[in-house]
Amino acid sequence: MHVHDVAADLAAEQQALDDIVAGLDDAGWMTATPSPRWTVADQVAHLTYFDGAAATAITDPEAFQASIGDLMDVAGGGGDAVDDLTLGAFRTLAPEGLLDAWRSGRSRLADAAATLSDDDRVAWYGPSMGARSFLTARLMEAWAHGQDIVDTVGGDRPPTDRLRHVAQLGVITRAWSYVNRKMEAPAGEVHVALEAPSGEVWTWGPGDAADTVQGPAEDFCLVVTQRRHVDDTGLEVNGEVARDWLVRAQAFAGPPTDGPGPGSF
Fold first, then answer.
1. DSSP-assigned letter for residue 259
2. Which of 1, 133, 175, 225 has most Cβ atoms within 10 angstroms of its Cβ?
């Protein structure tokens, strides 16, 4: 898939969430979500901040590098300090103003993404990323934070085959889920076979692996983005290596975190 195809899927995923939040009243925007401390508005503010940062990373790498220091300076102060930096300005906006800011940032990111080619690399908060992976990570963020909002307001966001991007990230970050926790990954391969919303079957890993994960692609994506515990999904997990991975899976960057416990949903 070309970088511009990923960019188109990113824009479609953002619009799917826009369709949900655009219809909320002020009370809906201020409703607490499953993320500690965060309202629906905070979820959108988070996406707005980092979509803007992503656009800057593509169009003005020097300015982006300068901004990293600001975030690193407050990172040691805990979640409230980071929230003050990344969400503070947006928390002063009424919902209409925040929605406008998010749409403006998304437009700027889309324009910036249009300048990328498949072999470009983009600076980010850790190592630089290939252009396709960079935009895939933005799509994963939009979908995962959108899930927090959907869970909160009961919005209708049917799964689509854009989930392949999220599932791919979930598979390739298996090792990261352990490295990030300063743990050794158990030896052994895992075969993953997921039912796409379209009815296709997506597979990764050797077909003769002793450990397997099978089931709906949406459920797998919910687990690797820590929006559901594996026991609360329709996934069929065979083998200790596969289960050990899915109870720790983390498809996103940042310090190690744990998703909801079993029975939360």
1. -
2. 225
Can you give the pTM of this predicted structure? Answer: 0.95
Is 263 exposed, middle or buried (CB count within 10 Å of its CB: 0-12, 13-18, 19+)?
exposed
CATH topology assigned to domain 3-145: Four Helix Bundle (Hemerythrin (Met), subunit A) (1.20.120)
Helix (H) or strand (E) holding 176: helix 174-179
For the chain, which residues make up each domain, given as ranges?
3-145, 164-246
- Assigned token pair, 172: 């390739």
Domain 164-246 has CATH 3.30.70.580: no
Give the pLDDT of the chain (265 residues) as one tens digit per residue.
899 999 999 999 999 999 999 999 999 999 999 998 899 999 999 999 999 999 999 999 999 998 888 777 777 666 688 888 899 999 999 999 999 999 999 999 999 999 999 999 999 988 899 999 999 999 999 999 999 999 999 988 999 999 999 999 999 999 999 999 999 999 999 999 999 999 999 999 999 999 999 999 999 999 999 999 999 999 999 999 999 999 999 999 888 999 999 999 8
206 contact partners, CB below 8 Å, separation of at least 6? 189, 191
